[in-house]
Structure formats: structure tokens, C-alpha cells
Amino acid sequence: MKILFQSRKTLFSVPGGDTVQLLKTAEALRETGCRVDVSTDLEPDLAGYDLVHLFNLMRPQEVYLQALNAKRQGRRVALSTIYGPYIEYERKARGGLAGVAARLLPHSQLEYLKVLARAVKNLELNRGTLSVLARGYKTLQAEIVEMTDVFLPNSGSEMARVHADFPASAAKPCVVVPNAVDTVLFDPETVTVSPELQKYQGCVLSVARIEGRKCQLELVRAMRDLPWKLVLIGKPAPNHTAYYEQIKQEAGPNVEFIGQVEHDRLAEYYKAAKVHCLISWMETPGLSSLEAGAMGCNLVVTEKGDARDYFGEHAVYCEPDSVESIRSAIVHAYQLQGSARLAETIRSAYRWRDAAVATAEGYRSIQKG
pLDDT at position 369, please? Predict the structure, then answer.
């Protein structure tokens, strides 16, 4: 099969977990014999492609036009939903005018305004943006659902959210494709911590883009007066520089900001760390938690989203808006021995080659007979 992967225009300029998921899935599929290309174009020529695989229902402005283009050219559509709305964060924790708007407006209208704001502030303006502004955020999402032939969520609980918000999706095929880790890159038996990173041995680590919904400010507050170093890896998301500055102002002497780190260098940081924290308002479940767990870190994860689908009772859970809950979870996780069982479970059950097998199963379910 020859597959075209497509996603948001900012896939590489503002990388996130969906960037890693897309690239690693493509790599694993190629190893099975599939031909996979990646494009962020809105209306590419699909001659020679068997189907189009789209990513991220949360960004309908591009995915809508890509799906429409696929249907116009007679191609089937697979969709990795990556569907984790941050409704609770927007209404409970977001500050400023955006927080006021979140508490007054339906979620779809708030997302509409965010698309407009990104178009003005970040110059994220294309025909997809105009489609959202002309027709509405949730309308485009619903039309993407209608054009999708098979859904490929990262968990059953994620797909339940899609079914709840878009009932038409329940009538279509669905294959769960769990997120995964590179078990060669993230292998605690082969990774060694370089001399310059030895100072991070035993630290509390958090690898995530820095933005309000990832709760790094609450994490910094929770780490006050604790005896361990907190290491934050990631760069501020666009429009979150004020949040980043507040974190730096409140950070104590035990907090170190690393900035963006190349993905293949993260293994050393995970190997050095004792605990990894990803305490967002929503995760599905968070690639950095999977990677850190595979490297032997004890995990502190959010109660919100799909983390329990992956980690069960092998992680310590917290409420993202409670500094006391986060602090208690960190202390508990730090006192635990390393979870060899969790690391082995992740390394055996969440591999990219398994994700490729499940993805290919989804493709086969919609091949024309």
C-alpha cells in the first residue's frame, strides 16, 4: 500500500506529541513494507496513493480540507483522532479574557475564537482557517467525522469521547492504536548518562511543551521546599510566553529550565531522573510518560484523560489544579522503588511496530473489496 500521512501546517514548526506519533508510525509502517509519505499540504495530488491517513481532530482547519481533498479524489480516509479537549482547563484554570470567554461561551465558540486569535497573532492563516471562520469549529469537526472511513484512536476512552461528541462516529469502523515508544532508543540497558548530565541524577523531570494546560506552574509550586531538583524540558507554546515568564519568576533555586531537547537525547535525561511528571488537564496518555516509564522512571500523571488505560496502578495520580495533590504524588513516587514491571509492560506492549500492525489492520478494514 502507498499511504499519505497529513496533519496540521505547524506540525514541524511547533512540534508536539502528534508530531512524534505521526513520524514514528510512518517509520514503523515502512518497515512492514508500506510506502508512506508525509505532507502538510492542504490539497495535494493523490495519484498513486491508496488512502490518506489524517491526524488530529482537534485541528479541523487543516484536516477538513485534507479530508475533502481525499474524498474529491476518491480516496478512503483513516483518522488518528488525538481527541482530548481541554474544556475543563479552559473553564476552571485559564486566566485573562480567554478564561472569561471560556466560562461564558460554549466550547466550540471558544475554539472558534482561538483559531481567529492564532490567525491574527501567529499568522496561521490559510484556506482551512477561513473555512473554520466561515462555517464554525464544530461544524468542520462533524464533517471530518462524516468523511472518515476508519477511526484510529489511542485508547478506548478516547474513542468514547469522540462517540459522545459526534454520535455519527459510532457507526464506523474503529481500531485502537495505542501510542508507543521507540524501544531501541529508550532502552535503560544501553543508555548511559553523559558526564555533563550527571548533575541531574535523581531529579524530578517533566518533558512537555510549556503552556497553561500542562500545569508547569503548579508543578513548580508543588516542588517548593522539596529536597530534589526539578528539571523542565520544553519550549513555551506560541502565545504562552507570559505563562513561561511567571513560571520563571516563581521558580525556586531547585528548578532548572533546559529548553527544547532533540528527541533522541531525551533518553539520557530519563535515565538520570527518578520521577517524571506529566500533570496536564488532559493527556491521551502523553508520549513523555510512556518514554520515561520505559526508561525506569516512577511516574506522576494526571487523573484527566486516558493515562489509566496505559499505566493502571503502576503510576501515581494527581489532580492538576491541586498543588497539594501534586506535591503528595511526587513525594510518594520518589519514595517508591523503580517500577521494573511498568518499564517491561511499556516496552513489551507499547512498541511502534505493534502500532503499525494495528494501523494496518485499520487500513484493511476499509479497503475496497
Answer: 44
Give tens-digit pLDDT for 135-157: 888 989 999 999 999 999 999 99
C-alpha cell recorded at residue 190: 544501553
CA distance 98 to 26: 36
Which residues pair with residue 5 across a beta bridge? 38, 53
β-strands 275-278, 316-318 pairing:
unpaired
For 324-342, letters b (16+ CB in 10 Å) and e give ebbbebbeebbeeeebeeb
- Residue 323: pLDDT band (50, 70, 90) is very high
Asked whether residue 104 carries a pLDDT value surpassing 70, the answer given is: no
For 26-68, write each residue's pLDDT tens digit.
Answer: 999 999 999 999 999 999 999 999 999 999 999 898 999 999 9
pTM for the predicted model, two decimal places:
0.86
